[in-house]
Amino acid sequence: MSFEIRPLKEFLVRPAVPPELDRLPELALNLIWSWQHSLRAVFRRLDPVAWKACNHNPVVLLGRLPQEALERAANDPRYLALYRRACETHDDYLKSVVSGYKSNRFSWLKNGSDFSPVCCS
User: Fold this and answer.
1) Distances (CA, A) of 31 to 26, 39, 59, 69
2) What is the pLDDT along the chain (121 residues), one digit of tens a residue?
3) Per-residue b/e over 87-120, b at no fewer than 16 CB within 10 Å?
C-alpha cells in the first residue's frame, strides 16, 4: 500500500535583511550591478563562494544566504562603507538617467530632424 504525500503549501523563506542593509534587495533588482563593479562587489563580499555558486546572480544570492552572513556584513564597518558607496553610485546613476530622459525625450523635435513618426491606420 503505497501513497504519495503532497504538500499543502510551499513557502519561500528568505533571510531578513538587517536595517543597515535594507537597500540590498533594491540593488539586486536593478541591473546596474551587471556593469558596475562596485555594486557587484557588494554582493560578492557577502559570500564569495555562494556568489559563484549562484552564477553571480544577486537575487538568487540573497535568497540563499544564511542570516548569519547578513548579520556579519551589517556589523562590518568596511562592508558598510562599500555598501554606502554602492548605494550612492546607484542613486547617482538613477538621477542621471531620469535627468537625461527629461532633457532628451523630445530632442528629435528640437534639433530640426526630418524624422517623422510613422502612423498606421
Assistant:
1) 10, 10, 11, 23
2) 678 888 888 776 667 899 999 999 999 998 888 888 889 999 999 999 999 999 999 999 999 999 999 999 999 999 999 999 999 999 998 888 776 655 555 554 455 544 444 445 4
3) bebbeeeeeeeeeeeeeeeeeeeeeeeeeeeeee
Residues whose CB is less than 8 angstroms from the CB of residue 60 and which lie 6 or more positions away in sequence, other chains included: 54
Question: What's the grid cell of residue 31?
Answer: 541591473
For residue 108, give the H/E element and its range. Answer: helix 107-110
pTM of the predicted model, to two decimals? Answer: 0.71
Q: Which of 113, 9, 17 is nearest to 61 (CA)?
A: 17
CA atoms of 67 and 70, how far apart (whole Å): 5
Collapse the DSSP code of 16 into the 3-class scheme (helix H, G, I; strand E, B; otherwise coil) and give the result. coil
Single-letter amino acid code for the residue at 70? L
